Amino acid sequence: MNKVSRALGAAMLCLGLLLSAGFVMAKQEQTTPAKDQTKKEKTATVNGTVSAVTDSTLTIIDSKKAEHTLAITSETKVTKAGKDAAIADVKANDVVTIEVKRGEGNTWTALKISVNSE
Q: What 3-state DSSP class applies to 68?
């Protein structure tokens, strides 16, 4: 009977360890998608010459003569000659480098607009 009790105790101990390991693994799998959700949004850089600017959009012509209209939000950062600026400081024919993020339906939103010095 003593050997049976020890064997039963050992089996219960092993079962408890396996269950604990299973709970730990399940918990780790649940946290993995959360890390993926915090990935930085994908951005791109667009260079060109400003052809038109409003309070909410900026239209540029790139080196391949393609026209791009970008949305401007209150979050858009503008710099000119390395200093903070406003969208009103961006004029037609300014050469710009823009960090954009792509939205739904092939829309682009300007995150950072840098007016290149002449």
A: strand
List the CATH number of the domain containing 96: 2.40.50.140
Question: Measured between alpha carbons, how far is 84 from 16 in angstroms, rounded to an integer?
Answer: 61
Taking the chain (118 residues) in runs of 10, the rounded mean pLDDT of each run is 76 68 60 46 89 95 93 95 93 95 87 87
Token pair for residue 83? 């200093």
- Residue range of the domain that includes 103: 43-115
Whether residue 79 is found in the same domain as residue 66: yes
Continuous segment of H or E residues that includes residue 27: helix 2-37
> With b meaning 16 or more CB within 10 Å and e meaning fewer, what string describes 65-88?
eeebebebeeebebebeeeebebe
